[in-house]
Amino acid sequence: MKFRNPKHATVCKTHIIKNPYRLDNRFIAAVYLLSANKETWFRARNSIKEDRIDFSLIPKSGLTPYQYAIVSAAQDIYEDTRHLTLYDIGDMYLMEEDLFDLIINALRICKGGYEMVGVIKKFN
Q: How far lies 68's CA from each of 16, 44, 65, 87, 99, in Å?
């Protein structure tokens, strides 16, 4: 799995490892996206409770378009909302290449879960 940088990998994996719940793949994918940017993680981390994310608690005013797309993609994956379309994601002028890669990786996490982010957890 490709992370933006080592800090992204550390923040994402630490949050997933320390969470005692069996997490849904969509939750893991949303955490992967939200932790990809310092500002989005700062705003989102307090909206993550146990094994749930309350996107209504994430302040969205003042986000850059890049950061807003991260939060929107995370919410679309987690809650099955429709903030971004496939057209938006595939538009080379609208979607930066690294953001496109993050979203594709998040979709892979939806299929593969823990293994895709390099986390091995055992549950009873």
A: 23, 12, 5, 17, 11
pLDDT tens for residues 47-89?
A: 999 999 999 999 999 999 999 999 999 999 999 999 999 888 8
Residue with tokens 């996206």: 33
User: What are the structural domain ranges in the chain?
Assistant: 6-117
Q: Which two tokens stand for residue 13?
A: 């994996």
List the end-to-end C-alpha distance of the chain, in Å, as a whole number.
26
Write the single-letter amino acid at 39.
E
CA separation for the pair 48, 39 (Å, rounded) = 15
Can you tell me which residue has the tokens 């994430």?
58
Give dist(CA 97, CA 94) in Å, integer: 10
3-state secondary structure labels for all residues of 47-72: HEECCEECHHHCCCCCCCHHHHHHHH
pTM for the structure as a whole: 0.94
Burial class (CB in 10 A: 0-12, 13-18, 19+), 113: buried
